[in-house]
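User: I'm writing a short report section on ligand binding and want a predicted complex to refer to. Could you take this sequence and pyridoxal-5'-phosphate and write out the structure as tokens? A short remark afterwards would be nice.
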Amino acid sequence: MKINSNFDNLVPNYLFAEIAKRVSDYQKNNPEKDIIRLGIGDVTLPLAPVVVEALKKGSEELGVKETFKGYPDYEGYEFVRQAIADYYGSFGVKVSADEILISDGAKSDCGNICDIFSKDNIVLVTDPVYPVYVDSNIMSGRKIIYADCNKDNNFTAMPDDSVHADIIYLCSPNNPTGAAYTLEQLKIWVNYALKNDAVILYDSAYEAFISDDLPRSIFAVEGARKCAIEFCSLSKTAGFTGTRCGYTVIPKELERDGHNIYKLWYRRQATKFNGVSWPVQCAAAAVFSDEGQKQIKENLSYYKENAKIIAEALDDAGIYYTGGKNSPYIWLECPNGMGSWEFFDLLLEKANVVGTPGAGFGKNGEGFFRLTSFGDREKTIEAVKRLKNLLNNI
Ligand code: PLP
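Assistant: Sure. The structure tokens for the complex follow:
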């Protein structure tokens, strides 16, 4: 018996374990200190009232013979897919309900999509990167190449025409950098993908944070329907990190290597996934109702205001950063040329604030640091006060 030896090629990811250890050691030695966490990647505000009502109603229906539901459709209930298609329409992007597949979240879809592609494909990711794209492809034994994001390109890497890739992961607005592509930039990626007969795997998990005139979907770009798959999620949009619901959009005309991609993904899901529960799909549909949109926007505005408070402090201190607008993430350059972990320790010890060292997201993350806006308002304000104080005194 042999295991999948590709697992030996995974680089152990100690990032969050190491953060937890350093924070716990510091707290043990300094029990009186009030530590504020500005590193959390999880939401903290509760589900919207209409979503909770839909969850309750859906659950009660499962307890009544006449309304009981068994296995859902593999691709998700039609009324949920239609609600999502209408949502795309609200920002001017045309996708149809039968191009949408409901899932338990974007993380699983971003990773599982690898099942339908040959292991001989070359995968391109931007660095720094959401680790799921890299690790899922290492597990399947694919070669990974990197497009560098740095200060020179404002953390929005563009394709290099001299390099070939078959699968391209793009995430905009980006985790961890908060940077978001413009329509013109995405058009360049789409043209590159078409030229290389590649497929773009577009993660739009943070599209709901966009307020500027930036694309909310890869399908806002002409030609994308012939080369892109989009993953989105209700995790950050509507606080579904624990409730679990996402969706993947595959245009019906997307073909590669003589195969229809939608059909392959449907076959993969029908084989290994039995769908999202009835109450959760009812809750998802409620997110896209008029009342749902109004209510989730209150939470999104709260996080966005937190992001603005952090970003303004960095503006005042003259620190370079990306994100903070159109994103819950703020990606800042560590002051005085410090390394990511060096700044982590300084911030923890001198300001009792915890963030995430950029080095944990790839080589281009060294010297950078991620703060998030998912915390409590009062704590964010206090953390920013301490951060400002620290930046003024180093
Ligand atoms: N994609 C990105 C870029 C993320 O940052 C996250 C969550 O942090 C996800 C996907 C995961 O989404 P889900 O909770 O739907 O699995």
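A remark for your report: The mean pLDDT is 97. The CA atoms of residues 250 and 262 lie 6 Å apart.
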